[in-house]
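Propose amino acids for all 141 sites.
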């Protein structure tokens, strides 16, 4: 796997150099809405530690990251009235990874509703901002 690139877009989001629709943050973890969501509420959970992908993170940091995913996912489902959620995570360009800072996709699912294709359709910015506010509230409770 390639070395970590400090200029990848999620590193810039973590440094506050570019905006995002943040929904959660703690000492080690950051979460924000995917701007090309596969379903309403599609969000990304990332470690603050520099890691290109799943092979590049300390196991203890990975455990912490997944504990946050485990904590937020049911709150996301409840806040949106979803029927469940899907976890997606890509490793390597050949596998479909496009941003080389490890990220876990949490994708809410509704029975009978198809997913939009991965990373293709930009969502409405106002709708994302409104949704981020709602989820921030749900995650802080
Ligand atoms: P992948 O590396 O294949 O897991 O995909 C990267 C994901 O990041 C895609 O789902 C994109 O829609 C999403 N994405 C790319 N840039 C941004 C951004 N600036 N803010 C939020 N999501 C992004």
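Proposal:
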């Amino acid at each position: 796997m390639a070395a970590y690139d400090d200029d990848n877009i999620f590193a810039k989001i973590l440094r506050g150099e570019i905006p995002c629709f943040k929904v959660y943050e703690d000492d080690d973890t950051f979460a924000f809405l995917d701007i090309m969501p596969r379903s309403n509420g599609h969000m990304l959970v990332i470690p603050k530690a520099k890691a290109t992908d799943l092979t590049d993170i300390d196991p203890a940091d990975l455990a912490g990251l997944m504990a946050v995913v485990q904590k937020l996912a049911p709150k996301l489902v409840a806040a949106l009235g979803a029927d469940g959620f899907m976890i997606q995570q890509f490793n390597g360009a050949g596998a479909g990874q496009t941003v080389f800072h490890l990220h876990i996709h949490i994708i809410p699912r509704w029975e009978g509703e198809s997913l939009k294709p991965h990373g293709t359709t930009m969502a409405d910015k106002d709708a994302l901002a409104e949704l981020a506010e709602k989820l921030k509230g749900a995650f802080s409770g």
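The mean pLDDT is 96. The longest strand covers residues 104-109.
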